[in-house]
Write a structure and sequence with these properties.
The complex is a heterodimer of chains A (305) and B (333). Chain A is mostly helical and 305 residues long. Chain A has 14 helices and no strands. Chain A has helices at 7-11, 24-33, 36-53, 55-58, 90-126, 128-142, 146-157, 164-175, 177-190, 194-201, 206-243, 254-259, 264-269, 271-299. The radius of gyration of chain A is 24 Å and the shape is globular. In chain B, the strands form 2 sheets. Chain B has an 8-stranded mixed beta sheet, with helices on both faces. In chain B, strands 2-1-4-5 form a 4-stranded antiparallel beta sheet. Classes of the chains: A mainly alpha (305), B alpha/beta (333). Chain A: Belongs to the binding-protein-dependent transport system permease family.
Chain lengths: 305, 333
Amino acid sequence: MEVVHNKNSQTENSTTKPQKSMSPWAMARRKFMKNKLAMISLSYLIVLGILSFLAPYITTADISRVNIGDMSLAPSAEHWFGTDTSGRDVFTRLLYGGRVSLLVGISCTAIILFIGTLIGSVAGYFGGAVDSMLMRFTDFILNFPFLVFVIVLNAILFGIVSGVWVLIVVLSILGWGGVARLVRSKILSEKENEYILASISIGCKPGKIILKHLLPNVLTTVIVQATILFATMIVAESGLSYLGFGVPQEVPSWGNMLAASQQPEVLQNMPWIWVPPALVLILTILSINFIGEGIKEALNPKSYR
Amino acid sequence: MSITQMKDFQTHNLLEVENLQMHFPVKGGFFRRTIGAVKAVDGVSFTIRKGETLGLVGESGCGKSTTGRSILRLLTPTGGKVIFENEDITNVNGKRLRDIRQDIQMVFQDPYASLNPMQMVGDIVSEPIHNYYKNKNKEELKTEVMDLLTRVGLPEEAYYKYAHEFSGGQRQRIGIARALALKPKLIIADEPVSALDVSVQSQVLNLLNELQDEFDLTYLFIAHDLSVVKHMSDRIGVMYLGNIVEVADKHSIYDNPMHPYTQALISAVPDASKMGEKRERIVLQGDVPSPENPPSGCPFHTRCPKALDRCSSIKPTLKEVKPGQHVACILYD
């Protein structure tokens, strides 16, 4: 009886006794680690995350107090990236802004994935009336005019939920439609496989079939979608904050910092105020996309690097 | 077989299928009205006695697999009755259905699609046991599963491997181990070897035969390969366009087929022992009609070489023409 080994396990020491085979996940992780661009991007994001998270320990400058004496100073040893038009240290605000932007990105992605996967998988698996009902509801959400509803919901939720969480809730409520549709379509095709029939016949209940059999097999698409979503949400936060409908103005975020460039004088003569947040934002989005690309490649069994 | 044994057999019908119908609605037009039905299974009746193998043959699309799936209630039949161990299971649901599935298991056709690629083989095989016996000791379960894997001819290391590391025949063995895990009474084998190499086919068939004696199994063996069915079955049912046209023990079917369709099928089997002899080969004309719009009367009359005028108006029912040989054809009325 011949057992077909995969290439990786043969190169490893084949002398060890019954060793566990690599799960498809472990193989994907291995492939991902070999992708240089994705690994650099990942390290950048991790460093950025750590810096933002530890912001209070790294800089001691006050982020909110207006300091008339230090207005619009160019970069120097004391203020690495200079100060903005209100005399606040740009570097400090950049770190604190990263906190907000990353928080918005991560929380929105998590909430959206949860709602979208739940609704999509239930609709896809059960089909019929359940499917029609959930999908019409999804269409309804998808048809909301985004900007108008962000502004309206922001006004309604203001005071009920505090600070950035208003924006997180709003973005999540409006954002899960695409994920739900994606997951549903994937489940629809996956559930036609005979192993789903098999799992019914061996007595699995619907919840178990969805969680143990269907979701692991559609997760690859969901993960790739999640990275795109993460980037989109950070951009959405920045865009809305730039327009003044996002995070409250006193809270530093990359979008709020960019909003300063609305003044022509800042845009022309004080690049240190808006270039750092813009640069960090671009790098973050880029690296998220590289990571997404890397994951996609790692999860694709047909690609070899 | 003595007469007492025969009687004993008859009282031990494990499965009875009566006039089973599975019509899939065809929707179209405004508001997705039902505008027709694909009559995949249209009035199938047979019985399986305890311990025997009933083969079900027929060409692609004649409703063999649908019949199998309806029995396990993976599909809900639109008509007729399925009686398992004297209990009508046609309309049971929920917990009772789940309990019944413990006794009826299925081996699937496609060894590649029927195993979850994200699960370890050990998990695949232990899952059925885990589903029904939640509090089973983990170590015991593992030994039990390892025993099963060894029994179907896989190495113990297979427990820690994933399905993609195995060949088609080995994957089918995993599928068989999974079906055995619950110690079922009836196994529906839905073309278990049609996707395998000929050299591997016989190994898997022999395994199924050995397991039948060892675990006291009853098989419903679905296939389209006549020689495979002959090797496996005690009795054979021949299906055509959602109907059973003839049921008899395998020797009667092969040596003395009575229904014109069966005769045509059997005449198509190459026979190595009669090499050189001129054989009479019955070649059927035309194609299988669409099950959405089956012919009136006898479903086979459009292609039957012996068709009479009244064949298009009278739908024949299965009648016992010879002892143990049931034929649905008006030629024998």
